[in-house]
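Entry 12.
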Amino acid sequence: MIVLILYLSIGVGLLALLTVLALRKHSPVEGSAHLFVEARGSLLTLQQGLLPSDLIRRIFDRRDLEYVTGEMPAGIQRLFLAERKQISVQWVRRVRLELRNLMHFHRGHSRFHGEISVLTELRLASSFAALLVACRFLETVFYFRGPYAAPSMVKATASAAARLCATSEKSMSFLNAANLRPFAEDSKRGNATI
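Predicted 3D structure (tokens):
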């Protein structure tokens, strides 16, 4: 009886292993174009939409706060602070989301590029981790203390994210169509090199 239970356990374990192997995601090479487009979109959203200094200056400008607290009644002040808090929390959440999209792309696909060194990958990984922690911290600070609680950290996080975007753009440049043209010209008719 014990031997039967042992064989059944081994059989169930093997069946579970086969099920896990059959259901796992396909190779990261499949669908790479879609992931590249998403990563490129995240990069552009960060660079052009979320990290420009004039936008950050506008969201976290203390002059708006000084004007509202000096000129407006208490109800409008509370409304202003609530809306500015909501905007700042949404801004940092969106920055974190776009950074995570970029991180997932790099984690899964940067190893296919031969010119990216291990040191560069480690720097990218540590930069992504530090920025994600900083974004989570900022989100917590904004939620509990308001949008004007950590101005120096906002500037530091935004500039670090901009530097990471520049590095990420350089590391993704190998996938641009302009860089693939020399390979296509080396191909003989009917014989694909790429």
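Annotation: The helical segments are 2-23, 32-50, 53-59, 62-71, 74-109, 118-145, 151-172, 177-186. The chain has eight helices and no strands.
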